[in-house]
Structures are given as C-alpha cells and as structure tokens.
C-alpha cells in the first residue's frame, strides 16, 4: 500500500488524503456510518488519468479499491478496509447537449447536480428521488425514479459510458462498442470498471405534482385496498411509493405520488386517494427540480443503516398487516419500509435487454433500518431480516441490487438477477475483470457460463 500511496503522490493531480492529515476524516463522511473498517488512503481524483493511475496501482499491488460517487450506498461499499477509496466527488460536471437531447455526467455528480443542469433546458431523464444520491451508483444498479413509468429506469436512458477497465485502459461502451460491457453496466453495479462518464438520453419534462399524503397506520388496510384497486390501470405519467414508518411522529402510512404534468393533470388521478381522507396532504405542483428534492429532509446523513429488499407479487391485506405490525414493532422510529409501485415503460422493456432482475414485479420493497446508537445495531438488523423472511412467501422473484444488504450472499445476488442474466454477467466479468479488482460491491464473481457454453473471448 505504501508504494501505491507514493505513486499517487508523485503522479496524480488529485489530493491523496491519509489518516491524521487534512481532509481525510471529511472524505469519510458518507450517507451511512455503517461501514466496515477504514481506508488506508483516499485519492480525490480530478481527471480520468488519476482514475486510471489508481486502478493500475491498486491492481498491481493487490490492494483493495472502492469507489465513492454520491456516497449513498447503505451497504457502505464506498469504503474498502485498509485499501484505497477512489473519491470521484470532485468530477461532478454535467454537460447538456440540447440539440441531441443528451447529457454527459461526471462520476461524482449527484441527481441534484444533474437535474439542475438538464432542467435549464427543460429536459430530464430518470434519476433518484433524493437530490444527494449519486448518478453513478444509482444508475449502475438500475435506477428507480419519478420517470420510471414514462421513460423506464435510469439504465434505460443510458446511451454510452466511458469506463476505466481493470487494466487501466479507458474504453467507451455503447450499443456498437463493447456491447457486452454496455449491457453489464446497465444493472451490474460497480463490477466492471470505474465509469468516468455517463451519457443519457433526455426528454422534455417541466412540472411534477408530488408531496406527501399521510394516514394513521390504523387506516393502512383501507387505504392500500383503495390504491391497489386502480394501481394496475394507472397511466405511465403517474408513479408512487407507499411508506410505512414512525419517522413522522406517529406510526403512519405515507404515500408519495409523482405525476409528470400540472395540478390539473394530476387532479383526477389523485382524487380517489384524497377521498380516503388523508390527515396530511402536501401534494402540490412543483418545478421538476423541487419535486426531486422534497424528500431530502427524510434522508439525513450520518446514521447507521441496514438495508434489505424483495419484490412483491401482490399487496393484499395479509402483506399490509405484516408491514403495519413491523412498523409498530420497529426498534427505531426512523426505520422506513418503502413499497415502490412498478409499472409503465420500465415494466414493458425486454427483461433481457439489461441485467436488471425486477422488471416483472408490480411492487418492490425497500427496507431501510436507520438508527443512531451502535448499541442498537443488532436489534435493527434482526428487525430487517425478520421482516424480509416474513415477506418472502409474497415475493415475485428478482431483486434490486442497490437495496441489498452488505452481507448479501452470492446466492442472494444471483437470485436478484435471475440465473440467466447472472450467468451472462459472470462471463462478462471474467472477460473484463478476471482478478476481481472491483469487488467492494454486490459482487459478481468472474466465471464461465457452462449453460451457455461460452468462454470469455478477447476484447
Ligand atoms: C437517501 C437515499 C435515497 C435513494 N433513492 C433512490 C432512488 O430514488 N432510486 C434508486 O434506484 N435508488 C435509490 N437509492 C439507492 C441508491 O441507488 C444506492 O444507494 C446507490 O448505490 C447510490 O449511489 P452513490 O453513487 O450515491 O453511492 P456510492 O456509495 O458513492 O457508490 C455506491 C457503489 O456504486 C459503485 N460506484 C460508484 N461510483 C462508481 C463509478 N464511477 N464507477 C463504477 N462503480 C461506481 C461502487 O460499487 C460503489 O461502492 C437511494 C439511496 C439513499 C441513501
């Protein structure tokens, strides 16, 4: 590791930060405190050459490497214990080409950066619903957002990516160049290289009608029954999430509808939910940028976390009773159980066109245990694990890898993608990162696909 640090100090343009030195502790401030260990050094990269240098140096020295984009990984994957943290947060410029309707994003940009830049031209593409989340990590896992019904997932709008590969070379992956790599990047996470530029297709979007509807938890069955009664017939320009939580004081059911359009467009769609008599209603027409950050206050940094996830095939009374019971029995009032309604364009796209393994499911559950005191670690992790075990009989198969816990097994990751897609990912991994340098993630071990009879070919 000392050799790596010396090399970076000599040749990198970005700062090398070490324990005890200026900036090191600041660089470790991430969304979650639940990280395992501490890096031996941080390189705050400034250029693609810095990234290539870090990849080459760590690869040759056998040193663990992690990437930090927006720093939002709940599993704590931005930190490699005793290794090098490649901090990309300074490479955050977003350039928009309104003529081609595309945006080029640096790997350190947040969705707040991205939405502000693209909205100057009245354009947008699917991104996360909290503005401090990174473009990089969210996109590479799939990317569920407000435009999923109209435009698909974040990966469905990715048209090209520049990637620093495990050997330190840089390639552009798109439909015509390195097509297997391009396929793997659209859901395979940080397994295949360091993406240093994302290029997305943009679409005109002006206004978003969104906010919170809230009910006491006791009304959950009645309200969810009303929602599921028409959820299957909703048009593409409305999506929404249901949130079971005590974070707003009383144990509550919240709903975050997101309608692309004006208050007039939204009114008939929201009327059945408003007719159930919510006790809170902050839903209003907002600029797209404001709509994409109204949840930021619920996403404070510096807490401890344990995430888990599964899809759901149905959201019936039994499931709702389960979610309500776990909300009432939650060891931390800030724990959130979010049920994302999945429909529209993201569900119609060919499931084999990307590695993403949850397109077929009508609902996706994101369990976010969130607490402050390390003494509460075990109780909160147990709560999340028991909830996932209780939900499993209702799951529709597949999962969103960005919401999996840090201790997900290879079998969990395989089942998130489904065997065919996982097999293909392993073969592509074997070709692009045979030594598994990029392993601080929901790891896809390099492998050769026996079922497809394929061996890794030369690049
Ligand atoms: C408050 C909050 C809200 C969220 N909302 C959403 C949402 O609306 N929709 C959704 O789909 N997800 C959402 N997520 C989950 C989110 O997609 C993941 O946490 C994702 O990993 C965050 O990416 P990041 O760049 O911020 O994280 P980081 O911690 O910086 O990175 C996470 C991992 O991504 C990989 N990575 C990062 N940068 C690169 C790169 N340049 N090249 C290769 N690999 C890289 C690495 O494996 C890294 O460990 C949310 C998370 C939080 C905490």
Tell me about this structure:
The protein has 459 residues and is an alpha+beta fold. It has three domains: 2-87, Uridine Diphospho-n-acetylenolpyruvylglucosamine Reductase, domain 2, CATH 3.30.43; 94-204, Uridine Diphospho-n-acetylenolpyruvylglucosamine Reductase, domain 3 (2-Layer Sandwich); 207-403, Vanillyl-alcohol Oxidase, Chain A, domain 3. Helices cover 30% and strands 22% of the residues. It has 15 helices and 20 strands. The strands form four sheets. Strands 12, 13, 14, 15, 16, 17, 18, 19 and 20 form a nine-stranded antiparallel sheet that branches. Strand 14 (238-245) and strand 15 form a beta hairpin. Helix 1 (2-11) packs antiparallel against helix 3 (48-61), helix 8 packs across helix 11 and helix 14 crosses helix 15 (419-432). Mean pLDDT is 95; it is low at 450-459. The site of flavin-adenine dinucleotide has 35 residues, from strand 3, helix 5 and strand 10.
């Amino acid at each position: 590791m000392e050799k790596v640090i010396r090399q970076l100090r000599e040749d990198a343009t970005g700062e090398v930060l070490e324990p005890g030195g200026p900036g090191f502790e600041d660089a470790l401030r991430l969304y979650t405190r639940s990280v395992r260990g501490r890096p031996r050094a941080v390189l705050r990269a400034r250029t693609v050459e810095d990234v290539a240098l870090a990849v080459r140096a760590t690869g040759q020295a056998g040193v663990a490497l992690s990437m930090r984009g927006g720093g939002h990984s709940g599993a704590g994957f931005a930190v490699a214990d005793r290794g090098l943290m490649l901090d990309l947060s300074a490479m955050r410029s977003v350039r928009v080409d309104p003529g081609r309707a595309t945006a080029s994003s640096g790997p350190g940009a947040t969705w707040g950066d991205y939405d502000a830049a693209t909205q100057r031209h009245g354009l947008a593409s699917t991104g996360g619903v909290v503005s401090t989340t990174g473009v990089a990590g969210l996109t590479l896992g799939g990317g569920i957002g407000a435009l999923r019904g109209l435009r698909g997932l974040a990966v469905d709008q990715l048209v090209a990516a520049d990637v620093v590969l495990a050997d330190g070379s840089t390639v552009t992956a798109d439909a015509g160049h390195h097509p297997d790599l391009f396929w793997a990047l659209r859901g395979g996470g940080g397994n295949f290289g360091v993406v240093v530029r994302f290029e997305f297709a943009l679409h005109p979007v002006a206004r978003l009608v969104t906010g919170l509807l809230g009910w006491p938890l006791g009304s959950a069955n009645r309200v969810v029954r009303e929602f599921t009664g028409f959820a299957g017939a909703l048009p593409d320009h409305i999506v929404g999430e249901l949130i079971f939580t005590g974070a707003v004081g009383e144990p509550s059911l919240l709903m975050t509808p997101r309608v692309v359009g004006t208050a007039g467009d939204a009114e008939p769609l929201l009327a059945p939910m408003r007719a159930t008599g919510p006790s809170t209603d902050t839903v209003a027409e907002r600029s797209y940028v404001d709509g994409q950050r109204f949840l930021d206050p619920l996403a404070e940094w510096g807490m401890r976390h344990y995430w888990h996830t599964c899809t759901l095939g149905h959201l019936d009374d039994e499931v709702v009773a389960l979610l309500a019971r776990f909300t009432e029995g939650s060891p931390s009032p800030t724990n959130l159980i979010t049920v994302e309604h999945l429909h529209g364009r993201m569900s119609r796209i060919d499931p084999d066109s990307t590695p993403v393994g949850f397109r077929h499911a009508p609902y996706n559950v994101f369990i976010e245990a969130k607490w402050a005191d390390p003494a509460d670690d075990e109780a909160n992790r147990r709560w999340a694990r028991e909830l996932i075990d209780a939900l499993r009989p209702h799951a529709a198969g597949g999962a969103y890898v960005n919401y999996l816990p840090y201790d997900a097994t290879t079998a969990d990751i395989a089942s998130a993608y489904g065997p065919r897609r996982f097999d293909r990912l392993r073969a592509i991994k074997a070709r692009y990162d045979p030594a598994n340098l990029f392993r601080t993630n929901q790891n896809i071990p390099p492998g050769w696909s026996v079922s497809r009879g394929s061996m890794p070919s030369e690049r």
